[in-house]
Amino acid sequence: MRSVHRVSARAGIVVTGTEVLTGRIQDRNGPWLADQLLELGVELAHITICGDRPQDIAAQLRFLAAEGVDLIVTSGGLGPTADDLTVATVAEFCGRELVLDEAMEERIAAILRRLMGDRPGVDFDAVRAANRKQALVPVGAEVLEPVGTAPGVIVGGSPTVLVLPGPPRELQAMWPAALATEAVQQAISGRTRYRQETVRMFGLAESGLAETLREAQGSIPGFDALEITTCLRRGELEIVTRYEPDGADAYRELLALLRERHATALYSEDGSTVDEQVAALLAGRWIATAESCTAGLLAARLADIPGCSDYFLGGAITYSNEAKAELLNVDPVLIAEYGAVSEPVAESMVTGALHHFGADTAVAISGIAGPGGGTPDKPVGTVCFAVRAGSVAITRTLRLPGNRSDIRERATTVAMHLLRRALAGVDD
Amino acid sequence: MRSVHRVSARAGIVVTGTEVLTGRIQDRNGPWLADQLLELGVELAHITICGDRPQDIAAQLRFLAAEGVDLIVTSGGLGPTADDLTVATVAEFCGRELVLDEAMEERIAAILRRLMGDRPGVDFDAVRAANRKQALVPVGAEVLEPVGTAPGVIVGGSPTVLVLPGPPRELQAMWPAALATEAVQQAISGRTRYRQETVRMFGLAESGLAETLREAQGSIPGFDALEITTCLRRGELEIVTRYEPDGADAYRELLALLRERHATALYSEDGSTVDEQVAALLAGRWIATAESCTAGLLAARLADIPGCSDYFLGGAITYSNEAKAELLNVDPVLIAEYGAVSEPVAESMVTGALHHFGADTAVAISGIAGPGGGTPDKPVGTVCFAVRAGSVAITRTLRLPGNRSDIRERATTVAMHLLRRALAGVDD
């Protein structure tokens, strides 16, 4: 990354929760908030994660304030249990007393009554008492209507602190209201509008890209005005470039160079993912899947796109050899001769899927995800793919790295890319 | 969380990488390292995430040092590209010069030669130049053998800084060697051995648990010596309790109270997950799945367990009505009469799965994941489940909250719990 910012509006994110700190749940709020802030043109400097201990939360608030951020967004610690102490800690950090917001207490009680209404045997008063602390807010703070049972809180100042609930669904639903407040708008008033472009490649090593970027640095005027981040994930390279408007020419030249050097690997210039591209290419077609080692991951990924019922018929998960024969008409003799993980069996699985589902497009995956089942000939990680899209057919055998879960995930991604190529009519 | 620690050895984690900070990839290293440190009895105070900007990395190192941690573990920023600056930043923070470790440079070159060996057309010298910076290490630092191409680095002191690579596979593989070093052992020498117990519940609201914990606080002697964290995730409640050895009696009493108050919801006292319990219960059985809205998520989750081929036959993903008829013999008249999302159709899917796969156990899921497809009668989130395990049969219709992806994930979890109950012979 090359830094070219005139620092404008800076923010920090404080994620609280012992369950997040200790890794028992993945934090989804930090990344989501980061994305929102970046889109707004707010510079994100730090995300910090701590447990439910007030002194650690306070230390992080002080750290971010000392780093000069304009806005601190916290997530979590607004629940009814005794370990939820974010509001009290923020109040102390901002030098404000906590007071009971009685109107809010009534609204929370109404929400609880509705939630509890159909559960006989629940002691409503006890539940209400547990939730009373959620109506305690710092004096003078702005309060955001609860999405679950916890209200959000905004304390204006330098920095302004925005306190949001931990459950991602509540936090995300509350965000627009938070953003609309005078206090938050003022805190981020210095934001810059950047352009951001994303390019995706598949099948290129990171050092190959590093070499091209070094070349670009030597040959493209104004290259240093581009802030480039590269990221290797699931075998895909993502290249994100941010620049202020006057960097547009340099970006155009960079893109031309990437196209020239990595024509085969570069598959997306507009940030679209392979999932989105495949979904668009499937319009007017009918697809079915036939999976062994991935056992549904490919089908689930296709079905992740809303509206997929316009082209997705279904799939057969044939983990056992008997299931391959019964559901996909794979000839047991073929399995005996070549093994279940072989190109002829993958091709036969595709044919069976086309036939049984009445599809015109199909993908088959058969592989050894491990940890057991490998042989010297076909070690763990060996995966066979077969794709048919109309008259285009692709068959491949790859050896994928990693553990069971890496191999299954990577195989799913490879299948998506083979499918994209077949649908686009590239049958190399 | 109630804090009762005699603070022993404290650590902080610095996760670097603009792609992580900006949410384009989920950080997996923070949680994994947190888990390792906690198991060692090292108190984890903070995880901080920043981009690849040296001044932000330096600020986080200073923050953690000021908070008095004994050990800082960093992840990321060791790659060949120009934005990877962690080692240089740590060297400056520790007041050490960077020097080229020539022996290490040779070893990295040997690794690259092996990696590149089978790729014609790659300019080896250019790649080697790109990777040379990975052999620059702080004077006097201990160097850990690369797993990918980047060596790890340990700089002893107060705090000791351990620099690890970003790819989770490399970081995890390097951890044992890092832990074995004198410098790290010395940094964590004050660690305490805690006991940690995990209880899991399904189908209980968080405020119900809060009420029980308040009761426990009043009635159980020594309750305050227990450090309890509760976490609601995918409809499951996880309760983790850490305590020093003399808290064992209080924990026993707490567990007895949880059993008494929440007998139906409590399904795990030893931390085992529903996935592990189902895998154990499936020994000697053969299972098949029949999925519509989850489209393979349940099958993929069953197949996530190594060795699942001993009981998992496969599954049918029948997204279209035609596929339900063709693969599972669901009578189209049944669909016309009750709708595809109905208990009779789910039961028919189970029967079809048992028959086609020759299974003795089967699960069917049919639901409306949205965003489209809901009706006043069957709104988005309506999901029908049918389970058969030998002579036990369970059928259920639930209305699940959230967006498309929440509903599909939650439906998969509900199916796992219904399967567990059926296998355990609870047919309520």
From TrEMBL, chains A, B:
NCBIfam families reported in the protein's UniProt record: cinA_nterm, PncC_domain, PRK00549.1
HAMAP family: CinA_B
Residues covered by the MoaB/Mog domain: 12-186
Organism: [Mycobacterium] fortunisiensis
PANTHER family the record matches: NICOTINAMIDE-NUCLEOTIDE AMIDOHYDROLASE PNCC (PTHR13939), NMN AMIDOHYDROLASE-LIKE PROTEIN YFAY (PTHR13939:SF0)
Sequence similarity: Belongs to the CinA family.
Protein name listed in UniProt: CinA-like protein
Pfam families associated with the record: CinA (PF02464), MoCF_biosynth (PF00994)
